[in-house]
Amino acid sequence: xxxxxxxxxxxxxxxxxxxxxxxxxSVNGTVAGEKSVEILPFNNQTLQPRxxxxxxQALRERLQVDGTYHLATSAPGDLVISGVxxxxxxxxxxxxxxxxxTPQNFRVEVTAHxxxxxxxxxxxxxxxxxxxxxxxxxxxxxxxxxxxxxxxLAADLAQNIVGLLTEGSW
Length: 170
What we know:
The protein is α/β, with parallel strands linked by helices. It has three helices and six strands. The chain has a single domain, classed as 2-Layer Sandwich (Double Stranded RNA Binding Domain), CATH 3.30.160. Strands 1, 2, 3, 4, 5 and 6 form a six-stranded mixed sheet that branches. The model has no long low-confidence stretch (mean pLDDT 83).
């Protein structure tokens, strides 16, 4: 009976200390919703039409979902995010059985140079290239297949940017 009580107490103690490294809330030390973020429209220097708008919109949506910062809509934000989409690259992954030169699947990769500054002090929090990728399965029309993958690519880029901002790995 004593052994059973000891084992039960040991299991309780181990289960309570097993999550000691975890903590709730923000990882970078800020209180959730304490600071606001202003997102300037991303400059698109690629040949993909309206991709800068898609990235800007996806970044706004991702910030709202994350909740660490709130989106500045009516007043200037505490942090300002701007970016330039400079590289859009597609690479063939799988090829047709009948034609070894015609790709059936593509990996599309985009690179954006992102700058995050504090508005009050002008301090540079982030100044680096951020990459994202998506897979495109080519259907009967390659252009429409690539156009359908653009929101997924923008969402992946937005997730990577917000991850860098909220985790404080700058």
